[in-house]
């Protein structure tokens, strides 16, 4: 969702104010599904407060793909753009306040934004930032061990470890909760020698 970049692009504030009445504000508890896997995505989501995750079902086991926090936006983009079934579920991890903007209004907003002089560059920067992040995640999943991925989480995004339960983090790293406990113990033991 483009509103997550309000701070970098102040001109978006005008649009946020204009589109705020068209957004549906939801104050929802943890474990609330905002989009089910297999359903066509019809909304862009902006997180005002809380934490969301995306996950898919793999033979009855949930595999967490990503976490989203305050001032971040998301949707099942391929589903949203191509009107196809979403490959994942979007669910709240903790009590959250989110704004949902319908596809109709997102398309209207994008049409209006095309008249902004710097929109193309802004959009390219937003897209590049997202692609860089996801490429890094993909490469790390292939190249790094679970221990290295966990260490990166500790260093680069400690808020995930502080706010998200261990079984979701384990799922995100592609390991069992037991394996994650071993990793944490091993790292704690290693740090104790310094």
TrEMBL record:
Residues 28-111 form the Cyclic nucleotide-binding domain. Coiled coil: none annotated. This is CRP-like cAMP-binding protein. Pfam families: cNMP_binding. Gene3D superfamilies: Jelly Rolls.
């Amino acid at each position: 969702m483009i509103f997550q970049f309000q701070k970098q692009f102040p001109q978006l504030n005008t649009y946020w104010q204009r589109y705020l009445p068209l957004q549906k504000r939801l104050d929802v508890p943890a474990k609330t599904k905002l989009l089910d896997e297999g359903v066509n995505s019809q909304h862009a989501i902006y997180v005002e407060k809380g934490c969301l995750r995306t996950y898919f079902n793999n033979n009855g086991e949930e595999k967490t793909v990503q976490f989203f926090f305050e001032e971040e936006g998301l949707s099942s983009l391929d589903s949203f753009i191509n009107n196809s079934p979403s490959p994942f579920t979007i669910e709240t991890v903790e009590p959250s306040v989110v704004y949902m903007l319908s596809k109709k209004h997102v398309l209207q907003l994008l049409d209006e934004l095309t008249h902004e002089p710097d929109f193309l560059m802004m959009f390219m920067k937003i897209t590049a930032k997202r692609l860089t992040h996801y490429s890094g995640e993909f490469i790390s999943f292939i190249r790094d061990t679970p221990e290295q991925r966990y260490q990166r989480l500790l260093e680069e995004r400690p808020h995930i470890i502080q706010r998200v339960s261990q079984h979701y983090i384990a799922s995100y790293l592609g390991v069992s909760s037991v394996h994650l406990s071993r990793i944490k113990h091993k790292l704690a033991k290693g740090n104790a020698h310094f």
